[in-house]
User: What shape does this take?
Amino acid sequence: MNNTRARTDDVDLTRLFAPRSVALIGATDHPTRFGGRLFRTLIDFGYTGRILPVNPRSDRLHGLTCYPSIAALPETPDHVGIVLATERVFEALEDCAARGIPFATVYSAGFAETGTDEGRERQARLIAFARRTGMRIMGPNCNGVINFLDRFAMTSTGSIRGSRAPHGNIGVVSHSGGLGQITVMWRAMQTGLGISYEASVGNEADLDSLDFARFMLRSDATDVILLAIEGVKDGSKLIDLAREAAEREKPIVVLKFGRTAAGTRAAASHTGTIAGSDDIYDAAFRQFGLIRVSETNELYEMATLLRTRRWPKGIRAASAAATGGNIVQLADAGESVGIEWPAYADATQARLGELMPGYGKVSNPTDMTSLATGEPENFRRALQAIADDPSIDVLAPIFAFNMRVDIERGAEFVRDCVKPAAMLWIGGCNDDDQFTARDLIAQGIPVFRNATPCVRAFRAAADFGALVASHKSGARTPLRPAGADPDRARAQLKATSGKLTEREAKQILAAYGFSVTHELLARSADEAVRHARSIGGKVAIKVDSPDIAHKTDAGALRLGVEGDVQLRGAFDEVVAAARRFAPSAIINGALVQEMATPGVEMMLGIVFDPVFGPVIAAGFGGIHVEVLRDLAYRIAPVTPEEASRMLRELRAFKLLEGVRGANPRDIEALVSAIVRLSWFAHDFADEVVELDINPLVVSERSGGVKVVDALLVRR
Amino acid sequence: MNNTRARTDDVDLTRLFAPRSVALIGATDHPTRFGGRLFRTLIDFGYTGRILPVNPRSDRLHGLTCYPSIAALPETPDHVGIVLATERVFEALEDCAARGIPFATVYSAGFAETGTDEGRERQARLIAFARRTGMRIMGPNCNGVINFLDRFAMTSTGSIRGSRAPHGNIGVVSHSGGLGQITVMWRAMQTGLGISYEASVGNEADLDSLDFARFMLRSDATDVILLAIEGVKDGSKLIDLAREAAEREKPIVVLKFGRTAAGTRAAASHTGTIAGSDDIYDAAFRQFGLIRVSETNELYEMATLLRTRRWPKGIRAASAAATGGNIVQLADAGESVGIEWPAYADATQARLGELMPGYGKVSNPTDMTSLATGEPENFRRALQAIADDPSIDVLAPIFAFNMRVDIERGAEFVRDCVKPAAMLWIGGCNDDDQFTARDLIAQGIPVFRNATPCVRAFRAAADFGALVASHKSGARTPLRPAGADPDRARAQLKATSGKLTEREAKQILAAYGFSVTHELLARSADEAVRHARSIGGKVAIKVDSPDIAHKTDAGALRLGVEGDVQLRGAFDEVVAAARRFAPSAIINGALVQEMATPGVEMMLGIVFDPVFGPVIAAGFGGIHVEVLRDLAYRIAPVTPEEASRMLRELRAFKLLEGVRGANPRDIEALVSAIVRLSWFAHDFADEVVELDINPLVVSERSGGVKVVDALLVRR
Assistant: This one.
């Protein structure tokens, strides 16, 4: 449940995707039944291995010998498909196990997706069967795999009927068959993209979406993976996959459903997925470099560029077109996703000036007016000048209505350009109606029809390039900070029993290098007076009780107390207030605490996510978290770079830079505190279920941060 | 410059769009020159009126008699196109005016879009010419109009070459030719939509985008208008157009560029448009019911549904499909734009239960599993049951891969459904590859390929329906609130000279019914003591000076002062501080002011926008406006409903509902204050350039609101 766990269970799915022979239990020649459609597809898609239909009621099916049982097969297949009534699935699986078959795909429904106890029990039984026998099972309630390289497809989908599409370098993994095979795969192919492998994984009783994605990641035939999921069961497995994707320089684009309550409900009734918090998924995707999109078309639009695996050095883009309105649209769309349109260098200006006489200074993106339409050669020269500009990272020339030869030359420019580039072709072809973007995309050229997907893909490619670079430099590996002493913290935690007081929680944090307020426990009013003298200045008086988590609610807190009379009064009052609030509470006395220097108040916390385990949260105090929900999350542990990115996600980040005349705050110390907290979350994942530091006071630059209050809940 | 101005300048463009005869100055038979392309299109598009080419160097062009000059024409055309070198345009225009020609389109560039003084002067001359002669001019730097009904097209675009598309009911207006005619119009037609009129308006020296949009709005042939603009010159004209659109129940979808700095720069260099604040455009679109989208494809996707002019009664949607993954995607996409998926009524559940035996309670959106694929008749019955459910306003059945007959029956269901409905067809056709969504869209059926545009269109249709209903009920007309006394306020403003003090500004606000703090001007410390006694309790002491706008910055403000000694000290201190801060300032003395009851502090303001005139702004005090930019705008004046909607746009709106144990605030009084302020902004548009009420303290329910400080800047 945490992201430094060793990788386990690296199942190799080669023989599932490319079996030397395959059996299908429940094969039939009925054209519309599920078993019939599956069997027909298996034959028609061009599989070259041996197909072994199993059905006791037939001798031959579509010209192939049909066998009455698995036991009767003349050879042991690598993979068996099971299309049977739910109650007969287990019997078939036992037969398969007895023959030593390594992979089975269970298409039958009636498991966890029904939402019934019976269905859930069946699914648990399936999991237990897989564990016991070592057989690996895809499904149940799934629609199998498609292997475009080896022409193996054991699936019912109508989306691969007809002429066989050439394979490409895009892998697709989806929970849903209809969504993965039609809305993603078929639609991607309609735009001219080619697929390597597709998997519609269903309920994931044993093999899950990430196992299939990992197989694709490791295959030479796949350069980008599209993942359409309702959630994952194991966050650490997703993180491992993301790390491997960065190492292999193969981006994963993810569409994760359940962003809304309605989506979560719909997902639960679809494959029985139990989703963690979508905010935490979102944070994890950002932290580990998965590219998140929000609809199926965005998955393959991203792939149109990412499959070229050319990572821009930055986010500085340029474009040129004959149509000014489209330039304006592209400029807007780009800046909306953080793309910059820098001014051209002087040398570029000079070269463009020769091509566009009388136009003065040329802006970026560049409206070449009808000069571009009338003089295609000039347009290409202008693009070349822009590509040579050292201040430009990526290029997106716009084409509207042009002659085929000019569009093809534009495509060659995009393909051969020294910088990553994509063509934004918004119109048609003047001399060939049948010539479309699909033709160019099928040749591997990144062509977009709309500005937004184009700039989003540029942004994703640049971000992924930065991730790859930081992986290579080792900057992505979290390192335990000096001064974090788990042994001391563990000993302190052991020394406490039951619920922890503020003081105890802060002592544990101090063992991780946190600066905490100076404070002493007073058991009497006299002692409070003595402690206040030793601390000096005004103090806070807070009840010390493991049973009162929220001292303000109990009225058991006094701030800015000074002088013996006030001190005695405050001690008596907070103890009395605590007694009234919780008559049975254990009350140790009152904490006499230095008054922290005023500063920006933040809240840091640890939460435990069912999917990702220990997660850290950061936000500003007061209404920011409670009303505005301005919170950033990360999976623990984090690097300082990640902690810094996390803070910059907060809408109110400027408060740390100093606003309304205030000086900048000690962001460095805050980053260090987040890193320490993330290691604590990581180290104590089994002992601690919740921790809130609220407030953490952030002083002005070099002034550090201080824990003023903390609440720690033991598991 | 304000939205209650009378409508003026209602030019009728019928003879521009459908001239009985048309002349083209600069016609040529050269195939690639602009004048040649224009002339060719005029002939090929099927215009049935008389075409009169004008070119002194030809006698005949494409078989038509060519005339040496406008003077030589055998008849006076309704509309003349001018394709000449820039310097020769005016001579041609004078000739046209001499013949009494009512409409001219100037295609030539070289005007304001060049960004040069010379170009701007030329454009000013063009405007003056139009004013002087009464001739109405389209352009310059434009690409003319297309009239699909009467087959009149005087434009250079390649996007209408080839076979003639049937006309439809969608009007398109764009600044840019390439964007309007290709990225919007041609692309819309590629999806199966039909166009009535298109106008590419260029620099708008005389006729502007709104004149063309109004023509389309008033034509029976147009049911929805797509507007792609970089800005408008006159906000009140846009508002009038929006009101007329609501009255005629014809929605306007608007893509407004310049959302970002890069987009604004690109727009400025394209047609020389000077944009107002995009935030204020955005507020105006929402206030007056224009449907804003962010990219060209969204324009025609919206039109796919809106052209049916069926307004849902609400935002409660339902869907059903054979593919669960797509159901999940649709549920997520819907809730993201505020669409609800209510549970079905019991009667519906019962009907669906019969169709889906063994599935228990059916959820919405509904995964019918393979029951839908295998039994198309059952699927239609299920859709009918859902359509009959009184808790459902709109339907979006999903189709994946189906037989043509089943898709066609689905389309019939969508067309004939008692509730507004759209088909979400994500896949293809099993038995006819050539049958696509385009075929259905061309028949007028709303068909979507992706979930997001579908739910966005539903949301826009429901919102537009609500707007239409509130227009009919009269609720959209702002009414002057009782107690707002412009005469008294004007008299008070007149009584002041130069800059206004806080006290003077508040007295003017009091004349509009605002409750302001009780305060008295003290000219001496003794007077301050007397005033404080008469006010009672603790008071604030603030310097009273027209020259010191920000008293806190000057240190000329003391809060919570009481007792004679403190009062005298405070008076002396604030006066001394003010003298130090601004030695030459006029200092009237100090204001002795009651301390306002603590409450939620808000900021209300008036700003003057170059496009929309007086605009009101509202936000919470403190960091909300300055750091978080959490501000809402509206064009003045507003209705209470609009003021309420404005507050609900604020991210921190919950602060008014009561958070962290606080009681709800007097939102009603706040709404009333916003309405009053909006009338003040409207009434004093010519006298006041800026007004800030900061803070306005909002007390608990029934406690009202109070102006604590105000700054008014005279024009």
Summary: Chain A is about 40% helix and 20% strand. The mean pLDDT of chain A is 93.
